[in-house]
From TrEMBL:
Hydrolase keyword on record: yes
Protein name: Endonuclease V
Signal sequence bounds: none
Keywords: Cytoplasm, DNA damage, DNA repair, Endonuclease, Hydrolase, Magnesium, Metal-binding, Nuclease
Residues that coordinate or bind Mg(2+): 97, 161
Gene name in the database record: nfi
Length: 296
DNA sequence: GCGACAG
DNA sequence: ATCTTGTCGC
């Protein structure tokens, strides 16, 4: 049965695979086996509901970028009950990041359509686990799902702050939540968790990229055309300033429903004047901004 | 035992 | 992630 009510907040982005959700309270072994199941269910090939080349930060309309936030101007512009099967308008891209308050996490989501912010939501949730390398999705996954549940729109792409396939069991935060939501997702990390870069990553020019290949620390996943040489992501130099502080590259990896090559291409298209892609940068700023309202 | 590790 | 002053440069 369809909803009787218009479209209440939280009606979109509901988990498609709640059975694979990062439940807390599992033993370490149970968390790792769940990650193996997530990796099996993950798709590291392009299966996108939009054309990647349509993703950009440009705003067709007035050529004017409105990054100040706030919701849609004149209220409901469209009936928006489902995906946009309509126009050539850019896909909806959601940037997700968190800030912390004691034992609580503030998860922020900023959704962009081209260079415009169309929605911003956040949620404050209790944290159940400490940070453990390799098990990040079990600490931050639940809180992030809480925030995504507040969304009125249905993003075409989710951009996470952390790794996707660049993970010991090929199931990092971006992969885990991408699979649970069954949505295309990308992981953008500021440092490398595992895997080996093809080339030295130091002091590279903007736009430069090199494959990150699976090594001994990356477990093979049945069901995927894997091999010890499999490209699980890319080191990507998004920015490089004309002066000293050599900027480190970003480590981009596919979360779900896209290839490593498409993931970097999209991050490149979403890069503005800063190191982090715009959706992530805005979510990061919003997470800090909203945090102030909860500090004791 | 040693090394190594997203946020 | 978070704790934090000043400092260099467009």
């Amino acid at each position: 049965m369809a909803r009787a009510v218009p479209a209440a907040a939280g009606s979109e982005m509901r988990p498609a695979r709640p059975d694979l959700a990062p439940r807390p309270g599992l033993s370490r072994d149970e968390m790792e086996s769940l990650q193996r199941r997530v990796a099996e269910a993950a798709v590291f090939e392009d299966d996108l509901p939009f054309d990647p080349t349509r993703v950009s930060l440009d705003t067709p309309e007035t050529g004017n970028q409105t990054l100040t936030g706030a919701v849609a101007p004149g209220g409901d512009t469209d009936t928006d009950g489902d995906a946009d099967t309509d126009t050539n308008s850019p896909p909806l891209v959601a940037g997700i990041d968190q800030s912390f308050l004691d034992d609580r996490a503030l998860s922020a989501v900023v959704v962009l359509r081209g260079g415009e912010v169309v929605e911003r939501v956040h949620a404050v949730s209790d944290l159940d686990l400490p940070y453990i390398p390799g098990l990040l999705s079990f600490r931050e996954g639940g809180p992030i799902l809480d925030a995504l549940a507040e969304l009125d729109c249905d993003p075409d792409l989710l951009v996470f702050d952390g790794s996707g396939r660049i993970h010991f069991r090929q199931a990092g935060l971006a992969t885990h939540l991408g699979v649970v939501c069954d949505a295309p997702s990308i992981g953008v990390a500021k440092s490398l968790l595992c895997g080996t870069p093809d080339e030295d990553v130091d002091g590279r020019p903007e736009g430069w990229r090199t494959p990150i290949r699976a090594d001994d620390s990356v477990d093979p996943v049945g069901g995927h055309p894997d091999g010890p040489e499999t490209t699980i992501g890319y080191a990507f130099q998004s920015r490089q300033y004309d002066s000293r502080p050599i900027v480190n590259p970003l480590y981009v990896s596919p979360g779900h429903r896209l290839s490593a090559a498409t993931a970097v291409d999209l991050v490149s298209r979403l890069s503005g004047s800063y190191k982090l892609p715009e959706p992530t940068r805005l979510a990061d700023a919003y997470a800090d901004e909203a945090k102030a309202q909860y500090e004791d």
